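Priority: low. Protein: sucrose-phosphate synthase. Input follows.
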Amino acid sequence: MVERKLRVRRRRGVSCLGRYMPRMVVIPPGMDFSYVDAQDLADGDGDLQALIIPGKAKKPMPPIWSEVLRFFTNPHKPMILALSRPDPKKNVTTLLKAYGESRHLRELANLTLILGNRDDIEEMSGGAATVLTAVLKLIDRYDLYGQVAYPKHHKQTDVPHIYRPAAKTKGVFINPALVEPFGLTLIEAAAYGLPVVATQNGGPVDILKALHNGLLVDPHDAAAITDALLSLLADKARWLECRRDGLRNIHRFSWPHHCRLYLSHVDASCDHPAPHQLLRVPASPRAASADGSLSDSLRGLSISIDASHDLKAAAGDSAAAIMDALCRRRVTDRPASAAARAAGFAPASSSSPPTATAPDGKPDAERLKRVVDMALSADAAAGGRLGCVLSTGMTIRDAADALGTCGADPAAFDALICSGGAELCYLWKELAADEEYAGHVSFRWPGAHVRSAVPRLGKADGAQEADLADDDAACSAHCHAYAVAGASKVKKVDSIRQSLRMRGFRCKLVYTRACTRLNVIPLSASRPRELRYLSIQWGIDLSKVAVLVGDKGDTDRERLLPGLHKTLVLPGLVSHGSEELLRDEDGFLTEDVVAMDSPNLVTPRRGPGGR
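Result:
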């Protein structure tokens, strides 16, 4: 309902009030029809006559033909073909009842049931045995001997040949399943020029809408099945029309058409690209300096990490020892001078910087100071050529204050990623925001329209209005912040996100500061994405980036763990995290989405500073 209303508003040029629903398009799958012989599409039943008329010159025929035709008293009659597993959901018993109760249908056509392979029904699984037993009982009840074929065996290579006798006798293919997810056999039947009768529940609706080669029926209504079969079998003009339409439109399910259709929709979506979709990679101010080009510099410098040895071997050491391993270089290069750094800032132009990710939740000043000192000392040891970035769920002002309590100079960091990835600024430029990144994340950001919806949808049952209230001091252009009274007063991220998306609001939610604040940020914003943004802007190889995280943190912490970068998890850094508000108890675990045994992910036995 919401999607339909938004589509109408967009068509009329009316504002959607920050709501957006992804546009979905059904693209038929591609199939290979090379196995269809042009002779199979020729009218006439010459092949069948050669097989069943005594004295007529016989050609080598597929074995499955004789296996089927031996059941029939009069094999010249049109064939009704059903091909499926012996599964109750395939609804074969209703088809048999419809056939058995219609004298006109029995006189007009034979029925062929291809129901898998069997040796002994008593040795089959419960569901299959029940269906096959019911089939045999119905054949006996309606005395359908000589009119119904139910061969015991067929090979996969026989399947294309099964459609041919039905088409040559001007028969019909039927799929009476209660629900059919797609309906591959309907497309195969159409490729042989065979009209179809199919269930009105599921994929056959889209298939017949494309092919126009048959009728849809209610699978529960035996009378409707009978009428549909008779309308095709008794009316030869209609049968020929369905045959021609099926053969004319079958190309819609070919691989070439599938690829063309897919690419056309991709081209159409590219007609309205997101602003700043392609990020600029600025030229290095020192690209032509005496130190050589950017590519030469990066080739001359690398972090000495072996994915399976050096980093893992250091896992038993302290975090400081691992930082030393991360910062070792295979070759020594002349440190950049202070004058060169002042000329133009491009931290990746001559180094491969580990990225220090600030601990989330509420770390104490001593713990935070050890991590900051670790990162800055590594930068100092590299002669100032190691870029350092602070990434946090706090606001810019809170992050600067936290660094101040540690006695660290905020300007020592090359960039600040704040509010869970909603803001990016450069402290060496007096906290100037990155306008290009701001334009990038603003794409389809609902802005003020979603602000009032979050408190209404995010409070737990019985919670008061003050339990999830606006935190104006922590808000920014791309971050709506809310003060949380307690974890039991609010819903979890997955639940709130689902409620917002049902209303057309698409954004990210992050609980931070030990479950005391909820940040709502644009869908295109996140701390991992901001890290990748910087890698593009600065020309950094992500495999040469180190990320330091605590063993607890914000609800987006697990997104920082996987990737090309090296991740160092510092145990004991954060006393209280926010992960309990990420997903429901019956949801998947972090181990289900993060490869904890990855060589790029390391947890030392001792905490920061060797403690």
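DSSP finds 24 helices and 17 strands in the chain. The chain has a mean pLDDT of 79.
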